[in-house]
Please model this.
Amino acid sequence: MPCLNLSTNVTLDGVDTSPILSEASKTVAKLIGKPEAYVMIVLKGSIPISFGGTEQPAAYGELVSIGGLDPATNKKLSAAIASILESKLSVPKSRFFLKFYDTKGSNFGWNGSTF
Model:
């Protein structure tokens, strides 16, 4: 049920995204305490993004989860995902925002129903 949506202005053409998706999935599952089988990662590249008035490499993310989020966990998630983006896509940690949404099961659709 956790879903991490990542958008970056970095082109993903020719980039092997599998290691990014895998590492992000494992990280989210571990830090939130949910089975990885329920984690979804969405990665979109070549998205027009201006941050601080420049179009240098940047990224924006949103993480939605039914529980498992709190200030301490969010801080760890922010650091971990920023590190992945920096090491895999050369997006500086200072050019990445991550927004957290802790939602109710009734607000999350899956398998033709809700949680």
About this structure: Residues 3-114 form a domain with the Macrophage Migration Inhibitory Factor fold (CATH 3.30.429.10). The beta strands are 3-8, 40-44, 59-65, 96-102, 109-110, 113-114.
